[in-house]
Amino acid sequence: MKATLSLAQMQVIYGKPQENLAQAIQFIAEAARCGSHLILFPELWSTGYDLERRQEHSRTNQVILHQVAALAREHSIWIGGSYLLEKNGQFYNTLVLCSPQGGTNIRYEKIHLFRLMGEARHLSAGNKLIQAAMPWGKTALAICYDLRFPEMFRLLALQGAVISLLVAQWPRQRITHWLTLLKARAIENQGFMVGVNTVNATGSETFGGCSAIVDPWGREITKGSGQKAELLTAEIDLGQVTETRQSIPVFADRRPDVYALE
Fold first, then answer.
1. CA angle 160, 162, 164 (to 5 degrees)
2. pTM of this prediction?
3. N or C: the chain end with fewer CB closer than 10 Å?
């Protein structure tokens, strides 16, 4: 199964959801012209880390999600990205995939909250791993800081994931970590890693771009600039996952009886 994916590497305007939505509409139209099956936006793309206004932004994001869902149907494309959203009186950093067919959206609430940017003070942590049965295969969902927790991606791979979608706001000063960890997660789990990052200044932080799609051998299929907003589009062949796992049978050779973590 082949799939065409687009990464919307955008400069998020801090606390300005309508301005960010205007950017997103342009990216979605461009991805549709490219024939993409999915377009992925960065972490908290509509607001940035404006966490103190989470209640206000959550209400606005509910409206934006309806608009994004309509755009997914209009352009016949999956649309993913994370938002500040409220559920049962608590606020989460929530990755949402909107289907081109409409209906129920797929949601993942960020498990690992990043203390350095205040998430642990303002948001609640999710407690459930999510993978979706997408047209191109089982797809794991993750957000930014999750990338530093290899056990999460290994478990998702053991449960059948062949591709992981990761949305992020990854600072420029640690962009070498971003690229190294994307490749490591792809190689060790023998699956595709798809990571989209923001770029340039958003509020008081500067982000490093370098959005990338990495294949199961750790090769970059596409990689974005570290300094400009752009749409990256590439076709991937999910058959590579089976080929790689058969070539080096890492999963069959595991010894969890020896090194089980807990």
1. 110
2. 0.97
3. C
Residue-level pLDDT at 103: 72
For residue range 128-173, what is the model confidence (pLDDT) as tens digits?
999 999 999 999 999 999 999 999 999 999 999 999 999 999 999 9
Place of tokens 């890492």: 250
* CB 40 within 8 Å of CB 6: yes
Catalytic residue among 109, 144, 205, 210: 144
Q: Locate 188 and state its tokens.
A: 């060790």
Q: Which long-range contacts (CB under 8 A, 24 or more apart) does 134-139 make?
A: 134/38, 134/78, 134/163, 135/1, 135/3, 135/37, 136/1, 136/2, 136/3, 136/37, 136/163, 136/236, 136/238, 137/1, 137/162, 137/163, 137/238, 137/241, 138/162, 138/163, 139/163, 139/164, 139/165
Catalytic annotation, pick one of 109, 110, 138, 183: 110
Q: Could you confirm whether 138 is annotated as catalytic?
A: no
Q: DSSP secondary structure string, 111-130?
A: SS--GGGTHHHH-PPP----
Annotation says 144 is catalytic? yes
Tell whether the model's pLDDT for residue 261 goes beyond 80: no
Instruction: Tell which residue, 20, 2, 22, 3, has the closest CA to residue 12.
Output: 20
Helix extents (H) in 131-262: 150-158, 175-189, 239-247, 256-259
pLDDT digits (tens, 9 = 90+) for 37-69: 999 999 999 999 999 999 999 999 999 999 999
Closest CA relative to residue 15, chosen from 43, 49, 38, 63:
49
